[in-house]
Design a protein that fits this description.
With about 375 residues, chain A is α/β, with parallel strands linked by helices. Chain A is built from 15 helices and eight strands. By secondary structure, chain B is an alpha/beta fold. Classes of the chains: A alpha/beta (about 375), B alpha/beta (about 260). The interface of A and B includes residues 349, 355, 361, 368 and 369 of A.
């Protein structure tokens, strides 16, 4: 049984979207962002509301094809579609995009052109080497963002306000980490599906409300007896997973436990904390620069992250789901399999539903081999 | 011990009732699945029951496999066609280490360890490119009975290169070839080679170790066996009963699957 019913999460999220819409009518500004490189602390310190735009879906993908090519990445197509149909996307005043893959680099142009929503576009150096001059480059991007956010909201983020937001998001990340870490236990009570809901809700609620929800989940976990564990323990990986990919989690979790992941929409968002020492912008620059992602070079950091997670959570296999045309992630499958030395199931699909039964056969056959 | 396996595939539904002690099959059935897999499966099972009244009370269990395995009621459990094919093929071909299974809706390559367990597998993902459906649609386009398709391909001396594996695009590619007076046998041979290359590329993602056994409906096509041998560069054995291997594997798995799984 789920710790908190899915419908409750959905209710919380839809109420929050209404709340955001109401705040916006009072003049609040909403900044939509996509990836883990977005410095949400700066957005909140400037008085804007950050919301992570992490939805896919077949209807959105199809709708998106009128703006982008049909063979553009499914997520970007779905994003474009969602600006037309999703109630949260429709609240967005500005998008905050960090240059990651080629598609994400070009997406803001299409968003602005077709929906009139401007973008703050940050340049993240492609190298992941901890080179001070590269980090300084990214820090200058953050300075630019501070100025642009002040123009948007009419209030600039003082250091005190920024410190408070850094501390609040560190607490949120720690709470999510603590929840996710309950899955280290022999039998996990927290499903991958609930973890997905928790993350999606946390991005929307902001630190204070999200933490009280997470604490509630932790209380339920502590009170519930654990069953005997005999199911395979799986790690998830690949491109982003959204609520719209839940069918896959449901399919996998009929016969196995998802105990951890290496996703930017999962544990990677809350894996670390913004350091405590130094000027706020310096700390944010080093923190975000240091987040591993497949598109950076070298990307060994993500491999080390995967190896560590695989050991810590005693993982039997990896389910690696890439979105159609998501090359930065699809290209790495073979190397990841060699690096981890565990069985890997690679699924490459868009948001359509046509091949679900074939995927089911592959998932079940994969679990049979474990 | 008598057990039964039912394989509800995209084209045919297959049933095997098998006695592991005497190694004898009491009942083997192949019927078209049609639009209602659940009804077809139940029809096949009840037909077998009425034809073999002597088995009543002796069948230890039934396991279902195939794409519509979850639609079959009153079975002990289900296994995927991947595990089922591995079990069935190893029973007939104990030294098999690679299974190539080309069915109506998908094609797969299985790599088995020494004990016969599936070590790794690859499977085509979404469309009919590189499956039996590809061949049956194009046989219609060429007005050649499917049974003759493989034999005709073997008559060709100069297979023409066919680059499309998409059923729709291959159809238009073939129409251009026919318009240019290309002999039909050469076109058919070209289609077989294209399909074999596709499967060989899939297999290359795994370690292809002998003995390679070819199963699934398309394994009945002698032209495909020859094309696969050329593409892989090693001999290929056609399974003893290509249509029935997965159903046999399901029958052999009775007692191993967890109830309700």
């Amino acid at each position: 049984m789920e710790l908190i019913p899915r419908a409750t999460f959905e209710q919380i999220r839809s109420e929050r979207v209404e709340e955001i819409a109401a705040a916006r009518r009072q003049g609040a500004k909403v900044v939509g962002y996509f990836c883990i490189y977005a410095p949400v602390e700066l957005v909140r310190a400037a008085g804007a509301i950050p919301v992570r735009l992490m939805r896919g879906g077949h209807a959105a993908e199809e709708a998106g094809e009128q703006y982008l090519r049909a063979d553009a990445c499914s997520f970007c197509n779905a994003c474009m579609g969602n600006f037309g149909i999703d109630p949260l996307f429709r609240q967005v005043d500005v998008v905050l995009v960090v240059n990651t893959c080629d598609m994400m680099r070009r997406l803001p142009e299409s968003i602005e052109r077709h929906f009139g929503i401007p973008a703050f576009q940050l340049y993240m150096p492609r190298t992941s080497e901890p080179l001070p001059h590269r980090v300084a480059e990214f820090r200058r991007q953050l300075e630019y963002l501070v100025v642009e956010l002040a123009k948007l909201t009419g209030s600039s983020a003082g250091d005190d306000r920024l410190e408070a937001e850094i501390a609040a998001f560190n607490r949120l990340r720690a709470a999510l980490r603590q929840t996710s870490d309950t899955r280290r236990a022999k039998s996990s009570l927290l499903s991958g599906s609930t973890m997905l809901d928790l993350a999606a809700t946390a991005w929307l609620l902001g630190p204070v409300k999200a933490i009280s929800l997470i604490e509630e989940v932790l209380r339920i976990i502590a009170a519930r007896p654990r069953a005997d564990a005999h199911r395979p323990r799986l790690m998830l990986g690949g491109s982003m997973l959204t609520e719209d990919d839940r069918w896959l989690l449901d399919m996998v979790e009929e016969k196995a436990d998802v105990v951890t992941d290496i996703l930017c929409t999962g544990t990677r968002w809350f894996a670390g904390d913004v350091p405590a020492e130094g000027a706020p912008l310096d700390r944010l620059a080093w923190f975000y620069y240091g987040q591993p992602c497949m598109h950076r070079r070298p990307n060994d950091g993500l491999y080390e992250y995967a190896r560590q997670a695989s050991r810590d959570f005693r993982v039997d296999g990896l389910v690696y789901k890439t979105l159609l045309y998501c090359d930065p992630y699809a290209f790495e499958v073979k190397r990841l399999q060699e690096a981890l030395g565990i069985p890997v199931l690679h699924l490459d699909t868009d948001y359509s539903t046509e091949n679900r039964e074939q995927v089911r056969t592959r998932v079940e056959a994969f679990l049979e081999t474990l | 011990m008598i057990t039964a396996g039912i394989d509800v595939g995209s084209v045919n539904t297959k049933l095997v009732v098998f006695d592991r002690v005497s190694q004898q099959a009491f009942c083997e059935k192949v019927v078209p699945t049609g639009p209602r897999p659940r009804e077809t499966a139940h029809h096949v099972l009840s037909e077998c029951r009425s034809e073999h009244k002597e088995l009543s009370g002796h069948v230890r269990g039934v396991v279902a496999t195939g794409y519509a395995r979850h639609a079959v009621d009153y079975v002990e459990g289900t296994i995927t066609e991947i595990r089922a094919a591995a079990l069935g093929i190893r029973y007939w071909h104990p030294t098999c280490r690679t299974v190539i299974d080309i069915g109506g809706q998908d094609s797969k390559v299985l790599s088995l360890d020494e004990s016969g367990k599936v070590h790794d597998f690859v499977m085509n993902d979404r469309c009919a490119a590189g499956t039996g459906h590809f061949l049956s649609v194009l046989a219609k386009t060429l007005s050649v009975p499917l049974e003759d398709f493989g034999w005709l391909s073997l008559e060709s001396r100069r297979p023409v290169p066919v680059s499309s594996l998409c059923v729709v695009m291959a159809e238009s590619e073939i129409l251009s070839l026919l318009a240019a007076d290309t002999p039909v046998a050469d076109v058919i041979a070209g289609l077989h080679e294209a399909l074999a290359r596709r499967v060989a590329n899939m297999a290359a993602r795994l370690r292809v170790e002998p003995e390679v056994v070819f199963t699934g409906g398309v394994a009945q096509n002698p032209g495909m066996k020859a094309a696969l041998e050329r593409a892989l560069g090693i001999p290929v054995t056609v399974a003893r009963k290509p249509l029935l291997a997965a159903a046999l594997g399901a029958a052999l798995s009775v007692g191993e699957t967890k109830p309700g799984s």
